[in-house]
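Dear support,

I submitted the protein below through the web form. The confirmation email said the job was done, but the results page showed an empty box. After a refresh the structure appeared. I'm attaching both so you can tell me whether what I see now is the final result or a partial one.
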Amino acid sequence: MQEQSLKELLSSNAYPGRGIVIGRCACGKYAVTAYFIMGRSSNSRNRVFVTEGEGIRTQAFDPSKLEDPSLIIYAPVRVLGKDTIVTNGDQTDTVYDGLKDGLTFEQSLRSREFEPDGPNYTPRISGVMHVENGEFSYQMSILKSADGNPECCNRYTFSYDKPIAGEGRFIHTYMQDGDPLPSFEGEPEKVHIEGDIDKFTEEVWEALNPENKVSLFVRFINIETGEYETRIKNKNE
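What the results page shows now:
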């Protein structure tokens, strides 16, 4: 698979929906993840990321305007020991509980499927990063309808051992804007990861469509020590 520019992929797509990037920085020192949310409706756009423990949670920017919280209020990022879980929905809790009970990442997600928001049937995208004793690996998952048919859930898990410096994978809910929204297809896209946490954060944030972007989370984890730095961007301030 050809490596692509994350900046170009984002700037050329007005509505990739929600997206997860996981990989290793160019210097090789840090495990990197980014999670962003976008919105077309006023309800989806009325959100911010706030810190919660070692992770984050979505929260209504203006609680008086919150309409339906069911699919937009959740914890996208949680940490369990050496594992950092990143997802686009409340399946973060499903993975967290599953790993805690001794299940694998893939086994934990067996109890879940795509979101019940027909006709889009938004895919559930998830990732888990394991950083311990100088070693880093990660997995990504997508649970999606069968080309828009909710009778079948297609389940895909992708595993990456010993990620290459400067390389990451990008998975997002939608291929592009549309009605209904077309689900992501294929394996996670290979993208280049460069710069320190501030440069990377700014590059991703600026590349997202200015009308549709809502919030961005970025974390760099030191692979040797497990210490991390986090950046959060919210359109609503």
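Response: this is the final, complete result; the empty box was a page-load delay. The chain has one domain: 4-41+80-234.
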